[in-house]
Amino acid sequence: MTCYTAKLAERQLQEEKRAAAIAANSSSNNPELEYPTEEDFKTLRRVAGNVRWTAYTIAFVELCERFSYYGTAAVFTNFIQQPLPPDSTTGAGFSGQPGALGHGQRAATALITFNTFWCYLTPIVGAWIADEFWGRLKTIQVSFIFAMLGHIILIISALPPVIQHPNFAIVCFSAGLVVFGIGVGGFKSNIAPLIAEQHQRAKPYIRTDPKTGERCIVDPVQTISRIFMYFYLMINIGGLAGSISMVYAEKYIGFWLSFTIPTVLFSLCPLVLFVCRHKYDVTPPTGSVVAKAFRLWAYALKPHWSWNPVRLIKNCRSPNFWENAKPSKIRVCHRPYWMTFDDQWVDEVRRAIKACGVFAWYPVYWLAFGQMTSNLTSQAATMELHGAPNDIINNLDPLFLIITIPLMDQFIYPLISKLGFNFTPIKRIYVGYIIASLSMITATVTQHYIYVLSPCHNHASTCDKPAPISVWLQTITYVLIAVSEIFTTITGYEYAYTKAPKNMKSIVQSLYLMSNTVAAALQQGLTALSQDPLLKWNYGFVAVLAFFGGTFFYFTHRDLDDEEDYLNSLEPSTYLGREEKKKGRKSKRDLEQGVQERPVERSSWSSF
């Protein structure tokens, strides 16, 4: 009975906070706008608003960068695993299998997994530098230098005289991956917040459709969701173009060309950002506030600490856990010297920590997602290719995403909204997990029949003849992975941005990306399964992990669905960190708040 009363009190407190936040957001000095009430939030459909043209230029930069990344990564498996074809000095396969170093599938899987681990570990450093010293735009520009140098080293490792010496080439290649990963890390943690902050409106308002007369809520969260959907669309357009073209460059010319063309296109990225640098809405560096956020968490935890883990978890979920750590609740004479922020920043940190709890479950999903670039590519090589390169089949994933993302944005999501179903981020992520599990089940079944039908049975990877199964059977697996990305990956970008304090957006985004490193470490542990005759157990194990991981995730975080509107309606903090201390003034965005609250009419070409 006591537990039930406590939960009821917590739910009532959440409802009161939500109503207060909505009421606060509804107050404005702009009489031209109609702001939604709590009843409007329950009854009116929510739609996305317009997006500034500057977001297009950043999306183009992302397209070029992903072309360079996926274009080079698409040929990594063959470059490392397969031996140099007879009478070939460049690794081109012509009518056979392209290859260069011949170090085998385990080495290929290990290096590709390391590359994933490294490229998603370095963003935490790039985020810290952006928040502390340079800001997002300058950090991205400096990262381009490292990425370009990494590209050049990769080209050297693939030159015909170099690949004649596989041991030296693999060392050169590995060095290129390390340098390249530093550049990728600085770019990845900052490009997503940069494109999202081009949308300046903070408060939802009501708009009436002139054709139908329908009243709907123009929701900034829906707009951010749209931005990231099309941001992810650009990722996949670049990835698809790079992967397909570089696979054929590898097959008919050689690996050196597969590494050179992406480098040339990558050189456009710094040029575009430099030309448009004065047009972007950019949050200046405010000093890293991560240490202060940890201090705040430790201060809030201190009175609730218990050596009993069950009691500790219960105490941390108490409604008063964060309330008692707010500056307004602490007498000035007892307030710590570092507590220079306001109550609103405490709410924002609480929200960010809840988001990080969501990201803690993502490694299970990335484990399934990562099979595309390693084991599934090798699986394709054991099937009937009908003239297609084995490492081009995984491009079915971005191809399906390019088709599906606009359909989801323009038709599926609006239909779900009209039906009255609140498809919250937690529900979307959960659906993505289940679909990812289904994709791994199909890969398990495919691998089973490869072993059954291959002339070499359980040693299909080293067999001279492929199994009599069409490689296009993998379409089912790739389509399911693509659908899961729409629900899980894109929602992760959205969740990281909308739930982070404005002076921690790069850090929180990097923590989301960093979940890939945990998945890469888990994949390293599964490397022993990435060989015959254990591959079907590899896919089956990942399928089970994705299913149970997604299920536990949902039941752990489903309470966040009830708080979604409240978390998105928090009154923004005025705490700026180092910028506030040194300059004693508001940022450009805060000074222009009055302008931001006005709806901006844009021509059709300036919005998605």
Automatic annotation (TrEMBL):
Subcellular location: Membrane
Superkingdom to which the source organism belongs: Eukaryota
Keywords of this entry: Membrane, Transmembrane, Transmembrane helix, Transport
Parts of the chain that traverse the membrane: 107-130, 142-162, 168-187, 227-249, 255-276, 352-369, 399-417, 429-451, 471-490, 537-555
Membrane association type: Multi-pass membrane protein
SUPFAM superfamilies to which the protein is assigned, alphabetical: MFS general substrate transporter
Region (Disordered): 578-608
Gene Ontology CC terms: plasma membrane
Name used for this protein in its record: Major facilitator superfamily (MFS) profile domain-containing protein
